Amino acid sequence: MHAAVNGVDLNYETAGEGTPLLWLHGFMGAGSDWRYIFNEPPAGFRLIAPDLRGHGASTNPSGEFTFRQAASDVLGLLDHLRIDRLRAIGVSGGGLTLLHIATLRPSLVEAMVVVSAPPYFPAQARAIQRQASAAMFGPVELDLMLKRHVGGREQLQQLLAHARGFADSFDDVNFTPPLLGTITADTLIVFGDRDPLYPVPLAFELYSAIPKSHLWVVPNGGHGPVFGERAPRFAETALSFLRGKWDK
């Protein structure tokens, strides 16, 4: 399905029935990545999975990308779907988008799981961002990315150019403690303790600033430590949290 939002043709899919559950994929991912976590739509949820602007089958005529823009697009989609209350999962760049959503419209998000998303880009992440190229990926991963992005190599090159631009961007990802303090959602922060981009102390900064937050540091976990063999544990934990089963 598609929705015209902010000059972007935003591709999205929905699956299941129940409470709206927003899934926001990582940078250079796609909405369909939810299938790497859940074998089927989680029971009791209507899953909404957009491709962020310039990703997957979503367009990006402006040729620009910020996570704040992506958040604005998603808010437009949710208005289009007439959703005014939801729960959400955001991974990496999707987590940054979700932090923008939760600060731009706090009343929208009842509970959220934010995975590998920092309050700002540290120096070590900026050094990696400056080197972003297709050479960073193995052939299998590169082939997978080319298949998920309908624009092929040209689209992939544009995304990589955006990634390099993040290295010199300081306004878009700048979640200060006072701003994070406006978040009203029950929040589960998930970080890997071996993340090469974002060290664990950044997770504690989020945890200290977001009022109703919980912190899960994944032992020996890298960036986005919720896929592969860790997916079942993450799915169980995240859904338990989002269903309100944790002690408040």
Q: Mind explaining what this structure looks like?
A:
By secondary structure, the chain is of the alpha/beta class. The chain has one domain (2-242): Rossmann fold. Helices cover 34% and strands 20% of the residues. The chain has 8 helices and 8 strands. An 8-stranded mixed sheet has the order 1-2-4-3-5-6-7-8, with helices on both faces. A hairpin with a 2-residue loop joins strand 1 (2-5) and strand 2 (8-15). Helix 1 packs across helix 2 and helix 3 (123-130) packs antiparallel against helix 5 (152-166). The model has no long low-confidence stretch (mean pLDDT 96).
What's the short story on this structure?
With 248 residues, the protein is of the alpha/beta class.
Describe this protein with a few key phrases.
8 helices, Rossmann fold, 20% strand, alpha/beta, 248 residues
> What is the CATH C level class, in words?
Alpha Beta
Secondary-structure element sequence? EEEEHEHEHHHHEHEH
Q: How would you write the strand order of the largest sheet? A: 1-2-4-3-5-6-7-8
What is the distance, rounded to the nearest whole angstrom, between the alpha carbons of the first and last residues?
37 Å
- Measured by DSSP, the beta-strand proportion falls in 15-25%
Query: What's the β-strand tally?
Result: 8
